[in-house]
Amino acid sequence: MRRWRVWELHRDYFPIKLVKTAELPPTRNYVLGSHPHGILCTGAFSAFCTEATGFSRTFPGLRPSLALLAGLFRMPVFRDYLMSSGMVPVNKRSLDFLLSGPPGHAVVIVVGGASESLDSAPGEQRVRLQGRKGFVRLALQHGADLVPVYTFGENDIYRQIRFPEGSFARCFQLGFKQLIGFAPCLFSGRGLFSSRSWGIQPMAAPLTVVVGKPIPVPLCPRPTEDEVNSFHTLYVEALKELFDAHKESCGLPASQQLLVT
């Protein structure tokens, strides 16, 4: 299913490009943090769940697994489709299983999660990372290298009605997320036959998935808070450096800054 022709058409519609900045030897396991979430994680899906952007050619020997909301895997048939594309539930049991196995696994976690989808809007360059350290602890427990990933253009393919922090509507969205697991977003794209009409088809904006350099992580089965905080700081710095190094080539002004909240 990863090689279906439809994924190439999906890639060409935007278009979507995968950019490699460093080697990821298959002799190691990796935890890739993907940013931003956007509405549907379109760039991450194309890059890591299909071969449309040439992941296997770009990173030979690596087996990518995009971690998704665990509730999606409770639906018969759809669950089998997700797993056939390499997707896994984003829970500790599944991720521990992958990272405890032979080297060559690349577990992709959309760190900002559903909360970050509420920040998605064209031109927005914001990620939620402060206080999100579980992926760092996971990497330390398995000695898996951390790799930052940023998808430029992810927030540009859908418009969204964003409600102010503290408003009733935003509280409802957050409460729904706590109860169900995902945040209900009021978003729109373009119509099927015209880019000027309203619809749910995403707008055709270029998406560039940039995979950064690995951060070497030692094996610490029981990492301390200081160790987790230290590697979290290194990760945030690496993500900002990745963003700054590629923002202009991806159409952003040199003055654009990545907001980490």
UniProtKB/TrEMBL annotation:
Protein's GO biological process: triglyceride biosynthetic process
Keywords tagged on the record: Acyltransferase, Endoplasmic reticulum, Lipid biosynthesis, Lipid metabolism, Membrane, Transferase, Transmembrane, Transmembrane helix
Domain of life of the source: Eukaryota
Molecular function GO labels: diacylglycerol O-acyltransferase activity
Compartmental location: Endoplasmic reticulum membrane
Pfam hit, one: DAGAT
Topology relative to the membrane: Multi-pass membrane protein
A Gene Ontology term for the protein's cellular component: endoplasmic reticulum membrane
Main location: endoplasmic reticulum
CDD domains reported for this sequence: LPLAT_MGAT-like
InterPro entries tied to this protein: DAGAT
Assigned protein family: Belongs to the diacylglycerol acyltransferase family.
Protein name, as recorded: Acyltransferase
Species whose genome carries this gene: Podarcis muralis (Wall lizard)
